[in-house]
User: Which sequence fits this backbone?
């Protein structure tokens, strides 16, 4: 793999070579030569990290949610070449040396899934949401836009997780799992 | 195989230089363009990534804000100056899409996002004048519950999907654009074109012209909000939305700004309703008369006549809410 400075390097992928690695779960990977490859296909098909799921592949379901520099995004609408030099975390990167992330354990404890297909996206999304709540990002149901602190109550949690669909209908368990880890703590 | 080149613009001049090819597209967060490419509605040969350009939000000398085009939707919605002085803008942004998409989407890209008309996306099975000029429109006689009641044409009845743009229209935002021939500004309300007989031409931008920033004038109207009516309470496009700001002088309406979303091919500034409200008593009768003045030009389709009544009631309800806020 060719290496270069993480800052200020411009890539022109006409013939397809990237100089700045994408950091996936702490490991460096060369961005794909083909600019059309989505970040989702990159992690699944190129890196064989199958935790991140392809649901609708059009930005409607949230199953492909990953974290980029701590922010949750939809990897199906992201082109991998746009993310060189960035740190991507998938569901495989959340556990700490074999110990489940607290949210992973909470999903088990609260039956936060049935088929499990939406679960990696739900969990990555909730981790990103907690950061947004911690920095006071308002949501559609936030009454006072002047408030600097967000209380993650039931309505806030449901609104903030509305980008992640579960067709099994495990939403009650999902909400309970996330609430156990993040609600009341100011996230 | 379709060749696709990708380049990351170092600065606006670099971006414009790379976008001179007629098949080039500027790429922001990708939340619309990547989807359109996957469906082959858009088939660019060059992507010019402009997410590395300025994403600052700056105070202007006149007390307004300059929002540089690569600003992400979340960053704009959470900015303290926007929350306190332009609350309808924060409300509009957080009413749109999902948190993941708002983290990706840029301000410039939001302005240029394309309709979510399903016939426009259906490249294999449907006729669409916006996608293939002159082909015909299958929405007009089709499933058109989500389509336009204002400003449409016999060639196209698609709606503009943005929430953010509706607030920007009401706030008199000004769009800064740049090309090889220099810089210019255009009012947000004049950026998008009505379809008439060329629905494929959606804005007044020239090919290769780059949106660099959106400027907000000072905010003088403290009572303001954005209300969105949709089929489910989150993560859905608007059936009808209203961006509104109001100032009272006693019981009379001193000043007002109104724009509608979900009902027209562009963010719809409700000039006629504003005209009908200024100087009038802030009563429900006035509000409904103003809504009627705006909606007199509505031309509903078979599936969306409900939007006329829904827009009328939503406009009146939002004005009533702001009247109560202004009095308290």
Assistant:
């Amino acid at each position: 793999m060719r290496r270069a400075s993480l800052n200020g390097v411009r890539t022109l992928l006409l013939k397809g070579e990237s100089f700045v690695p994408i950091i996936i779960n702490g490991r460096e990977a060369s961005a794909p030569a083909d600019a059309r490859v989505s970040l989702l296909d990159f992690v699944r098909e190129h890196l064989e990290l199958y935790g991140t799921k392809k649901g609708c592949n059009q930005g409607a379901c949230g199953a492909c949610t990953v974290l980029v520099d701590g922010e949750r995004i939809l990897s199906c609408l992201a082109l991998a070449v746009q993310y060189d030099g960035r740190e991507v975390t998938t569901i495989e990167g959340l556990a700490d040396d074999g110990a489940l992330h607290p949210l992973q354990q909470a999903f088990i404890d609260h039956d936060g899934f049935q088929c499990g297909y939406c679960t990696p996206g739900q969990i990555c999304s909730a981790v990103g949401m907690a950061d947004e709540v911690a920095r006071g990002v308002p949501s559609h149901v936030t009454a006072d836009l002047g408030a600097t602190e967000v209380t993650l109550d039931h309505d806030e949690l449901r609104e903030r997780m509305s980008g992640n669909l579960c067709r099994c209908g495990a939403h009650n368990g999902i909400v309970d799992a996330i609430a156990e880890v993040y609600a009341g703590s100011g996230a | 195989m379709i060749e696709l080149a990708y380049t990351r613009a170092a600065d606006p001049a670099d971006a414009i230089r790379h976008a001179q090819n007629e098949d080039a597209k500027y790429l922001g967060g990708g939340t619309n363009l990547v989807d359109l490419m996957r469906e082959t509605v858009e088939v660019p040969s060059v992507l010019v990534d402009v997410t590395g350009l300025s994403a600052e939000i700056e105070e202007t000398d006149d007390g307004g804000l300059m929002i540089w085009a690569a600003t992400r939707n979340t960053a704009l919605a959470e900015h303290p100056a926007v929350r306190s002085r332009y609350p309808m803008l924060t409300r509009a942004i957080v009413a749109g899409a999902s948190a993941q998409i708002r983290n990706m989407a840029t301000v410039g890209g939001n302005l240029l996002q394309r309709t979510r008309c399903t016939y426009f996306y259906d490249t294999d099975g449907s006729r669409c004048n916006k996608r293939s000029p002159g082909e015909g429109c299958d929405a007009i006689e089709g499933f058109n519950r989500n389509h336009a009641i204002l400003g449409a044409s016999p060639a196209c009845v698609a709606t503009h999907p943005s929430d953010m743009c509706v607030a920007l229209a009401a706030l008199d935002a000004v769009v800064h654009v740049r090309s090889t021939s220099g810089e210019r500004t255009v009012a947000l309300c004049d950026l998008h074109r009505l379809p008439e007989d060329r629905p494929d031409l959606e804005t007044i931008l020239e090919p290769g012209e780059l949106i660099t920033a959106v400027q907000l004038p000072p905010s003088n109207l403290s009572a303001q909000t954005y209300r969105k009516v949709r089929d489910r309470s989150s993560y859905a496009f608007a059936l009808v939305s209203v961006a509104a700001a109001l100032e009272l002088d006693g019981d009379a309406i001193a000043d007002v700004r109104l724009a509608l979303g979900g009902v027209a091919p562009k963010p719809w500034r409700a000039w006629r309703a504003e005209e009908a409200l200024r100087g009038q008593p802030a009563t429900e009768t006035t509000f409904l008369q103003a809504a009627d003045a705006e909606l007199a030009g509505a031309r509903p389709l078979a599936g969306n006549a409900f939007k006329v009544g829904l827009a009328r009631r939503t406009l009146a309800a939002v004005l009533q809410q702001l009247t109560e806020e202004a009095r308290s």
